[in-house]
Amino acid sequence: MEFSGGTLGSRKPARVRGKLPVSGPLPLPLGSQLGPWQLEAAVGKGGQAAVYLARHRKIDRVAAIKVPLDGRDERLVREARALGKLRHPAIVQVEDLIQEPRPYLVMEFLAGGNLADLVRQHRNGVPEEQVLEVAEAVLRALDCAHRKGIVHRDLKPENVLRDAQGAWKVGDFGLSGGAVSELANSLSSADGGVGTPLYVAPEQARPELLQGSKLDGRADLFSYGKLLYHMLTGQSPSTIRPLAQIRPRLHWLWERLIFGLVEEDRYKRPATADRVLDALGTIRRELNQGRVSVELGPTRHFFPRRKSDEGSREGERFRRWLRLCIVPAVLFVIGAATGWRAFTAIGGLLIIASGIYIAWD
Questions:
Q1: Same domain, 271 and 323
Q2: Helix/strand/coil for 170
Q3: More exposed terminus of the chain, fewer Cβ within 10 Å: N or C?
C-alpha cells in the first residue's frame, strides 16, 4: 500500500504534503461515518485496503483510518493483532482496531509527506546528511520488527513517512504480505511473492529460491539497499550502477554498503539490521571527520559473516542433501537387502552425486 500523510491528536486542519493519486473504487465513499469517525479524504489504496484521513466528530481529532477491501476483513484483524506488538518511534502506530460496523484500523496520521516526495525535491540525489537521517530511522524500525518476527515485505519510498516535526517513520508494516510469523499457517502460499517488483528481494519474488526455508529480514535489507540507491542518486533502482558514475562526490563507502545489501544471494547480505546500523555509523563518522577512510577490502567483506550465519547455511545445505538422498537411500537399502547389486550401486552413486551437488552449490 502507498499512502502519505497532522499527527494523531491534532485539532488543526490537516495539511497533507505531496500528492498521491488514488485510483479505482474505494471500499467506502468520502463522507461516510465509521463509529465516531468521518472519512474526509482518501490518501492511499493498495491491494488489501484503503487509507482515509478521518476526523473524530466529538473531539475534532484527525487520524488515518484503514478500511479493508471486500473479502480482506479477517486478514486485517489477524495482522492488526500481531502488529500491535510493535511500539517504536520510527514505526507508524496502530492505535486501535474497531470491528463494528466493519473492521477498520485507527492509525497515526502523518502530514509531512513521504520519501518519494523528498527524492522528487532532490532530483540529483538527497544530501548525504539527510540520507543518513532517513536511513537510520528506517533501520531502527526494521530492527524492531525483525526481532519480533515481522518482515515488512514492501519497503519502498511511499511507505517511509514524515510527521509534522520532521521525524521519519515506516508505515504499512507487514499488512500487505502476511509477514508476521504467527500468521504463517493462516495465510496462503500465494502471498509469498508480494511486494513492489522494483524493490522486492529475489527470494521473495521467487519463493522456490528459499528451498523450504522461511523468508527473513534479509529480504527487507535488499529493499533497503535499493531505497538507499534511490535516495542517493535520484534514479530508479531498476539497475544498480556504480555511484561514482552518477554522483562522484559521494563518499565511496555508500557504494560498498549498497552493493553489499543488494546481493542476489541472501547469505552474502548482512544478517541483521543492527549490522547495517554499524556500517551507517562508520559512514557518519567518515563524513563528520571529512577524510577518506582506510580501504575495507572487497564488497562482500563489508559485513563479515558471523559463525552463526555460516552455521545456518550449512544446516540448510545438510537438510537439502537429506531430501535429495531419500530415493537413492531407498534403492541402496533394497539392493543390500535383496542382493541386487545394481540397485546398491545406483543408490550409492546417487548419494555421492547429491553430496557433490550440494557442496558445489
A1: no
A2: strand
A3: C
Q: Which of 117, 154, 172, 216 is catalytic?
A: 154
Could you tell me the strand order of the sheet in which 37-45 lies? 33-34, 37-45, 49-56, 62-68, 104-107, 94-98
What's the CATH number where 229 sits? 1.10.510.10
Amino acid, res. 130: Q
> Long-range contact list for 309-312, CB < 8 A, 24+ apart?
309/267, 309/271
The tens digit of pLDDT for each residue in 76-99 reads 777 677 678 788 999 988 888 888
- Select from 170, 133, 140 the least CA-distant residue to 152: 170
Does residue 247 register a pLDDT over 80? Answer: yes
pLDDT range class, residue 185, cuts 50, 70, 90? very low
Structural domain range at position 163? 115-307
* Sign of the torsion angle spanned by Cα atoms 122, 123, 128, 130: positive
Domain tally, the chain: 2
d(CA 25, CA 31): 15
Name which of 176, 150, 16 is nearest 86 in CA terms.
150
Residue 154 among the catalytic residues: yes
Pair 175, 76: CB distance under 8 Å: yes
Burial of 185 (0-12, 13-18, 19+ CB in 10 A): exposed
Distance CA 145, CA 220 (A): 11
Is the CB of residue 230 less than 8 Å from the CB of residue 116?
no
